[in-house]
From TrEMBL:
The protein, known as: Alpha/beta hydrolase
Keyword Nucleotidyltransferase tagged: no
Matches recorded under Gene3D superfamilies: alpha/beta hydrolase
Transmembrane annotation, as ranges: none
A GO MF label: hydrolase activity
Record InterPro entries: AB_hydrolase_1, AB_hydrolase_fold, AB_hydrolase_sf
Domain AB hydrolase-1: from-to ranges: 26-267
Statement: the UniProt record of this protein carries the keyword Hydrolase: yes
Species: Lentzea indica
Keywords from the UniProt entry: Hydrolase
Amino acid sequence: MREHDVISWDGTKIRTWQADGDGLPVLLCPGVGSGPESWPSLTDRGGLLSWYMRGTMGSDRPVDERNISLDDHVSDAIAVLDDAGVERCVVMGWSMGVTIAAELALRHPERVAGLLLVTGAPGDSFDGMLPLLPKNVRRFVGLTGTKLLQQAGPVLDKVLHRVPVTDLTTFLLRHSGVIKPSSDPKVVTNAVSRFLQHDWRWYFTLALALGETPRQDLSPIVCPVTLLAGRDDLLATTESMSGPVGALPQARLRVLPCSHYLPLEAPEVVSAELDLLLGRVHSVDFAIESRS
């Protein structure tokens, strides 16, 4: 894994990471505070590019801390592509990174050859949470809960930064319903160990700024799209994912017996679906070239 820094539109230093080796370029729009540990089946796939969100895992906070809107994340994605010399590629998104990936396709369709959207709604994230609650209260509960966690950030830091990530804690987490037992214990340990070290007030500040993005109208998108939804996802319902893309001409939906952490629980499916999407993109490009 190679990491280096790029400078985004407002002078903020963004830490990027790239899988070693050659391969078709794929841009991964990350979930809030996530890194390569969350993608065990893809980190050895040459051509995979991504970055760490502003203020997390090596990326600087912007001088103006209001610069964490969807506009800023899309600009960071473009900075990563430009730095790598990638003009057009398949784009992936996970969790709230789905909102970034979708917006990138809407604003810069010439740069997005296909979309792989994993357990995340395109905008209005809080409305798609908590499927066990009545639909008319989901947004209120999700938004209020996130604001309370933001205020509790310093307390969470004192607690979570000291939590030992052992075989026992990993076992309990994988059998708690948060992450499914189908996940690899070593992979979960690596991901959780780094994730717990966040500045939690800032983490929930990022989540609030991005999660309140209005639901996106994806009707202009014409490239191949694949959605991977978790049947037992508490943070992004299948309905919140499938509704905005159901009428798109090249959309594919696959629902798996997974939670929100599908990339950890079904990594082989993620890899296979990415390969399938790359093949669909190639077929579309070939058909267009044949007609011209």
